[in-house]
Amino acid sequence: MIAMQDVLNRIVAVEAEARRQVEAAQAQAAQILARARLAAQAMQAQTHQAVQLETANLLATRLAEATQERDRRLALAAATIAAQIRLDDDTVRQVVDAALRCVCGEEVRP
Length: 110
Prior knowledge:
The protein has 110 residues and is mainly α. Helix content is 90%, strand content 0%.
């Protein structure tokens, strides 16, 4: 009878040890999972920062390109207008005189 009691005690002890090992494994798994989540969050934050930086750089580049294109088109338009409108000295003098008379309050004569 004592041998049967020893066997039962050993079975209970083995079951207790198995439960303890399962609990330790679950705790270890929870720690590994927590570390993995932290690492994933850190990677996500780094990726987000990298994307923001790349976006800012891309926007700055595109803005500079758009500004250069605008300036180029304005210069081209100004050159086109200047080439199309050529006034001789007499016409320029007449326009200036008319503007001065208008500003000074004198009647404008053609």
